[in-house]
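Hi everyone, sorry if this is the wrong subforum. Our group has a chain we'd like a structural model of before ordering constructs, and none of us has done structure prediction before. Sequence below.
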Amino acid sequence: MNKVLKIILSVFAVLLCIVLAVGVLNLAYYPMYKNKGVKYDAKEFGESDSISIVSANVRTWSPTDILKKSWFYRADLLLETVADKQPDIIGFQEVTRMHYGYLTENLKGYDNVMQYRDDSKLSEGCPIFYRADKFELVDKGYFWLSETPEEMSKDWGAACYRICSYVILKDTDGRELVVFNTHLDHISDEARINGIRVVLDKIEQFGGMPSVIMGDFNADEKSETYAAVTENFNDAKYQTDNTESGATYQNWGKALDRENIDYFMISKEGITVNEYDILNTTYDGVYPSDHFPIYLNISL
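Answer:
Right subforum, don't worry. Here is the predicted structure as tokens:
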């Protein structure tokens, strides 16, 4: 019995050491994170008749993201990449309470709409930030990608609850735009296909208003999900000369040859695309996230 007990205690000690080591490596940059912070004020970005939009998957918190993959190291790098495009509208995915607190603290001059997809402590959301000096908020909301979208729910074999946020914005010339930000399921193909159809059904309620759908679709251009959304929407990148189809999810640089899975989809009328780009910036070999943000500039 003593021998068995010793083995159990040894295994426990090893596991405890691993947990402590991972914790230390994950939190190594926390003091810098708390004391630094890179603040951006949208009021300093200047004015333009066009509308610039960035979509960015921030990478949910994971204990395996240690040292320079840790959010506490990457946060300022990600925000610098996003703010460099001086966006009027930003859609973030995989945003936990920790991410949301940082973003709201360091992005000044923006209002936002945010709802977490479930009640767990590490729940994620897909917030939309928009310039308060450029847009009037006409309406906002969120819904779940399920058969009962008005309540927290999941269907079709989805691995977790999935949500979509939206805003209706009016610019200073009185033109309105509806913007959706979502993150489709990463496991179930059926959930992705039906999830994007829930988004499309919601858009129909707005009666042909110029619309943008952005986010992480977890589906490439050969998928049924992509086919479903492009029946009535245009993939924005194909409305420009820059039809770059490289990886947006690059898994910390390990999958740079993958297909694009992050998109801007735009309604076929009412929107002109001026520019599209994948923001494949790195900082001395460090990736701001496991996804590259994407950028869109449009005119109404």
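For your construct planning: The CA atoms of residues 28 and 55 lie 28 Å apart. The chain has a mean pLDDT of 91.
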